[in-house]
């Protein structure tokens, strides 16, 4: 159980998150959506205890920012989609550059995300998609109660998008809590139980995916007229009208 | 006969001290270079290239104004070196921050600070304010002056630095990649950087205080270690670069005293002759990402 109470985050004088309250049950996959600069990453980083905040954030009644590094990796793992690649390290070094890596788990994930042939490559010698796969593997190789994926699906291709989302479902059914911040609504929303929508640092909507996601919400979030196509339990976001007018297809 | 034995013992002691000095200074400089490379995420990190050595050199030059017999010199010189080295690095850091903190701007601002302080430290020599021969012999970078006090202070600093760094090794692996990874483990990357660059200044300054500027070991040793290991994992790179750094300096010093017999050259000349090409190789290898 992740409980966020009266969360406020400031960057200098800028209020990036204001008064967010959340209760998320273990064993659920949660999409965190919102426009660029809405505060998705900030919310995830606050939950990971990576920045200072007002209010309380607890996982199983424990405040993460008060834990030692060795304990906190058991509670929460933060996974970015990309990092600066100016460092002289290999993909293999990157995978081991943290606390609490389980080597057996790591080996399995390296196979699952086809990184075996890339382990000795420098991190600037691989594509951004391959780098994101490595970062996903790095994060998943720790046993944590909560996983936070920032900008997931940004660089990886459809095959790996489906592979990672499917795998997150199995993690969730094993009782873990997974939060995914992403702009790739289309495959993501088909896999999530809940949606947390934020805009300008404020919570706009939170609830079950099928109940929360609607045309009005997308209009409100992104200012785009998009159509939610729901059929046979599949959700698709289609910005038909916009595409038509832009491209003069009709 | 007895006199001969004493003489031989004296030679041995002198040579032994110098060998130990090479090993210790090699370790100190490679620790310094390694820490700077991790903190700045810059493969060109080196106490000499980032101005630390020149800052220490300048500060120590000023201490030559005091009478050389003063026993305080053993406290004074390292202290001056540390303050000079640390301030120079702080200045380099500040300028680099203003210039965008890219690998290129870090090195360029280090060169700017370093050359300025280096020429400032030459000034008193030419104005003959102090004993020019003493200052010159020291500043050229040579291990000839190695005595018990020099070696013990070097060893003490090396041990202190190693004990502190050892505690942080897993976190340094995260720092080597991304600030976010450090934050995720609950550390403040800025605070961590301040501790580590402080140690880098400390280790480089003690070596400058006694033996003058010896460049490039700090740059080359970690790179050779990474090449040998085929890995950038700091838990292995640090101990390996202590070995590569001390062996490199020992070999250079042996070359310095034997190549041009009976001349005993400052080891820095040999080291720079090896280090220059090493730098060139590193530059070519990092071509791919230097521009990005």
Low-confidence runs of chain B (pLDDT<50, min 5 residues)? none
The span between the termini of chain B is 69 Å
The name of the CATH superfamily of chain B reads ABC transporter involved in vitamin B12 uptake, BtuC
Considering residues with a beta carbon less than 8 A from a beta carbon on another chain, report the largest interface and each chain's count.
Answer: A-B, 32 and 27 residues
The total tally of domains of chain A equals: 2
What is the highest CATH level, the class of the largest domain in chain A?
Alpha Beta
In which order are the strands of the major sheet of chain A placed?
6-7-8-3-9-10
Order of helices and strands of chain B: HHHHHHHHHHHH
CATH class of chain B: Mainly Alpha
Total strands of chain B: 0
Gyration radius of chain A (Cα, Å) is: 18 Å
Average pLDDT of chain A, rounded to a whole number, is 89
CA radius of gyration of chain B is 19 Å
Total number of strands of chain A:
12
How large is the count of helical segments of chain A?
10
Instruction: Give the proportion of residues in helices of chain B.
Output: over 70%
Oligomer: heterodimer
Structure commentary:
The complex is a heterodimer of chains A (250) and B (292). By secondary structure, chain A is an alpha/beta fold. Helices cover 33% and strands 28% of the residues of chain A. Chain A has helices spanning 40-47, 69-75, 91-95, 103-112, 128-140, 158-173, 185-188, 209-212, 215-222, 240-247, and strands at residues 2-11, 14-24, 29-33, 54-59, 62-63, 76-79, 146-149, 177-181, 194-199, 202-208, 227-231, 234-238. Chain A has a six-stranded mixed sheet with strand order 6-7-8-3-9-10, sandwiched between helices. Chain A has a four-stranded antiparallel sheet with strand order 2-1-4-5, covered by helices on one side. The model of chain A has no long low-confidence stretch (mean pLDDT 89). Chain B is an all-alpha fold. Chain B has twelve helices and no strands. The chains are: A alpha/beta (250), B mainly alpha (292). Chain A binds chain B through residues 45, 48-51, 65, 67-69, 72-73, 77-78, 80, 83-90, 92-94, 96-99, 120, 124-125, and chain B through 41-43, 103, 170-171, 173-174, 176-178, 180-181, 183-187, 226, 230-233, 286, 288-289, 292.
